[in-house]
């Protein structure tokens, strides 16, 4: 698996945009290690988790561009095989280098995807990519995973991996919610009444449809607000 050469460049830029920080709200704890063996956490060298990601190859992690934007690869540690981040199980690896989509600037302008190459490959099952664009049909239900906070006003987050099932919205609804919505680069998912969403520190985590990677947690306004769906990177535009 690879990022299409025509849309990628290896770049290191300035800072992560302040508005780009989603998480899981209204979800449940993942208690079966076999459910998401490809799920990884992105942490600092001191162990602070700031984003999620998914193994798409033994030594390759797909995540959001804004998660690594401006960071040195060697400052990012990837943790796999661990549902509870307070435990010592699983595997860890420093990032060797990464690529982000050429032209990326902020999540709301699209291209919010990065591919990390690990120093040490991980011995876990990888997450296959969505096979066709049919996965983005309105009302298809996907599952989003992350270690982020469970409410918009939370100051703390759980060390336990959470998940939530969320339906994909029609592009017309997404455009109505966000003026900058770009159906080529992104899709949105949520309930009209809100209540279930990704949130702070869930950024970069996978949105999985029928056991395949369809999206990456990218951006939104607040967390789980009514008529304000979460926005995800449309993975098939960038990965093959």
UniProtKB/TrEMBL annotation:
PROSITE patterns: TRYPSIN_DOM. Residues 1-20 form the signal peptide. Keywords: Disulfide bond, Signal. It comes from the Bacteria. Pfam families: Trypsin (PF00089). InterPro entries: Peptidase_S1, Peptidase_S1_PA, Peptidase_S1_PA_chymotrypsin, Peptidase_S1A, Trypsin_dom. The keyword Membrane does not apply. SUPFAM superfamilies: Trypsin-like serine proteases. PANTHER family: FI18310P1-RELATED, POLYSERASE-RELATED. This is Trypsin. It comes from Lentzea atacamensis.
